[in-house]
Amino acid sequence: MWLANYPLDNQTCPLRLQSYGLTTAEQLLHWREEEPIRFSKEINLPQFLFEGYDIHDETVSEDKVIGNFSSVLLTMAFRREIGYHLVASYIPMMLLVMVSWVSFWFDVDAVVGRVSLGVMTLLTINSVSYTVGKDLPIVSYAKAIDIWIGCCASFVFAAFLEFSLVSYLTRRATRLQETEKLLIDAEKCENEAHLVLLGKTTFGFDNDVETTTMVRKPKQQPISRLSRTVSRRRKVLLPNFRQAKKIDVISRYLFPILFGIFNCVYWPVYVLYPFGGKQ
Fold it and tell me: How much is the pTM?
């Protein structure tokens, strides 16, 4: 059986009837012209739909000494029913991919919820993949269901990576914000340390003494190293928050569009133009 299109495959089953000891000179086999094949209506296959058959009369050549043998060939065509696989594989995985998109609508600070959702969807897809593949024969090529499972797992994993990127940008911005507060406090202390006592003037009139003390801040000093650092970090802080939110907004539309394109390619390729091979 050729399983490259499984479970969207069609299978052909040949049945050959041939004489064992009588050559064509002694016996000829051929199909009847009227109703050559009779199928019992009580027999059906749960996973396949019978589509038709083809019959041929053939002569099998052995060698010159033994001779030729007459044979008849019946070729039956079957199409695999996809209903079970839709319910057990395709629809659940499609729903899992859509569930992974819910994390794009979470707040960027909802780390626990987004991590739990991503891990759950990945483990569930892995479990479904094992359930689907455990009863199949081991082959050296990828089947249609393998392509579907791999792409769905890739979409879920990509959603998890998107969260990792958003979380990194958010945490980086948070650290910069905390650092900014510390730098602002340090700048205030630095400015207070530069307060100077401008002078102390004494005026005497007879026995009366009047003392006037004037204290004020100096003229504006050049921006210190801490001030320049704060200014640079402010320029980085806001873009990080904006980028994190922008990535989430873009992902809300990009992931569904890409998954829709994948479905538009997957189903026509395997249903309308299946890969040929040995049956």
Answer: 0.72
Question: What is d(CA 41, CA 259) in angstroms, rounded to the nearest whole number?
Answer: 42
| pLDDT 10s digits, 27-68 | 888 888 888 888 887 878 888 888 888 888 887 776 666 778
- What was the pLDDT predicted at 275? 64
Per-residue confidence (pLDDT) for residue 219, from 0 to 100: 44
Measured at the CA of 65, the angle between CA 64 and CA 70, to 5 degrees, comes to 70
Beta bridge partners of 204: 209
- Provide the CB-side half-sphere exposure for 244 (13 A, CA): 22
Output the pLDDT for position 238: 55
Bridge-based pairing of strands 208-216 and 196-205 is: antiparallel
Cα–Cα distance for residue pair 178/230, rounded to 1 Å: 11
Interval 194-251: pLDDT, tens: 544 444 444 444 444 444 444 444 444 444 555 555 555 555 555 667 787 888 899 9
- What distance lies between CA 162 and its chain's CA centroid? 11
> CA-CA distance, 155 to 259, in Å (whole number)?
8
